[in-house]
Design brief:
- This protein is an alpha+beta fold.
- 28% of the residues lie in helices and 32% in strands.
- The chain contains five helices and 17 strands.
């Protein structure tokens, strides 16, 4: 799990929120699997609405520009990004996401990583935390508008009930070039070491090692 700070500026957040105010929302159960549907209580932007696709593209491009995202996730294929809205009484009970979904181009996507990009100021609503269940226990995230959390898709997680205000977020899934979490983490560590290494022989050796591991582990 990794927190990505300032994927969006506040102006970017305002642009997305203004765009979402013009699109149609529907019951979130319409896009949930048979198990998740039983615990999902929110609203979701209609994917076929003409105003939704430019917002999806804006989110995807912002994530790809983030200095940490690509090195950590190494995205190969993207799901269709979805926009969720929670009002008072809405929640998404404990669930796990499907192992396979539909990609942007309509093909099958293996869901290696999930992300939630927060679009509401945490002071503007109560509740609505993204709660992730890991080996070290449960962790709750109510991030600043414009920040994101990315995590392994297989984790049990939930959105706790909203008791005041409105929680907006963009959510999506990625099939990574590197299938295994431990291998992605090792590559990310090497990239961090590389970034701190001055140009020269040591850095070239790191480039060589990262390239060799990508050829070995990449799909």
């Amino acid at each position: 799990m990794l927190i990505l700070a300032q994927v969006f500026t506040l102006d970017d957040v305002a642009r997305i929120r203004d765009g979402l105010a013009k699109v149609t929302f529907q019951d979130g159960k319409a896009t949930a699997g048979p198990v998740a549907r039983k615990v999902k209580h929110n609203q979701q932007a209609v994917g076929s609405d003409p105003g939704t696709e430019p917002l999806r593209r804006f989110v995807r491009e912002a994530l790809m520009r983030h200095p940490v995202f690509s090195a950590y996730a190494r995205p190969a294929t993207w799901s269709r990004i979805m926009f969720s809205r929670y009002g008072p009484g809405d929640a998404y009970g404990t669930h796990t996401d499907d192992a396979f979904m539909v990609s942007e181009d309509g093909h099958r996507l293996r869901t290696d990583m999930s992300f939630t990009l927060f679009l509401s100021d945490p002071d503007s609503y109560d509740g609505g935390a993204l709660r992730l269940d890991g080996l070290d226990g449960e962790r709750e995230h109510r991030l600043a508008a414009g920040d994101a959390v990315i995590y392994s898709t297989g984790q049990l997680h939930q959105v706790t009930p909203v008791t005041r205000g409105e929680r907006l977020a963009a959510v999506g899934w990625i099939e990574s070039l590197v299938r295994r979490h431990d291998q992605r983490e090792l590559l990310f560590d090497l990239e961090r070491v590389r970034a701190a290494t001055p140009p020269g022989e040591a850095r070239l050796l790191l480039d060589k090692s990262v390239g060799a591991l990508l050829r070995q582990w990449g799909s």
